[in-house]
Write a structure and sequence with these properties.
globular, about 120 residues, 6-stranded antiparallel β-sheet, mainly beta
């Protein structure tokens, strides 16, 4: 069945990041994939995590830094990064302005499988 998404589900985040999920568990129960638009303030970072899903991150504005097991990389607007499930990573915005990106996760993102560290 074809479903039109009229508006995304807003997912709460205590770190100042805006998360708008267009497809996935929070926005309608899709378990196979999630697609979310993220907006982060300058200087933002989140805890390390070791997710149990594959994630493609497409940066559309600013820069997102991805710290991973072999080092780190800065992903700038117009670039993307692929993070395989099980990789220990941390995302941050090293700039002073907003950064925006889209995250596509398979299977769909859920907090229980994100593996966020305290």
């Amino acid at each position: 069945m074809v479903r039109k998404i009229l508006q995304p589900a807003r997912i709460p985040d205590g770190a100042g990041k805006l998360i708008l999920e267009y497809a996935g568990r929070a926005s309608g129960g899709l378990a196979s994939v999630s697609v979310a638009h993220m907006v982060t303030p300058g200087g933002w970072s989140e805890p390390f995590q070791q997710p149990m899903f594959d994630e493609v991150t497409v940066v559309t504005r600013g820069t997102i830094r991805v710290e991973h097991q072999a080092g780190s990389c800065d992903v700038m607007a117009g670039e993307a990064v692929i993070v395989p499930r099980g990789e220990r990573i941390r995302y941050s915005n090293p700039g002073s302005g907003k950064a925006e990106y889209w995250a596509i996760c398979t299977p769909a993102f859920e907090a229980e499988t994100a593996g966020r560290e305290a």
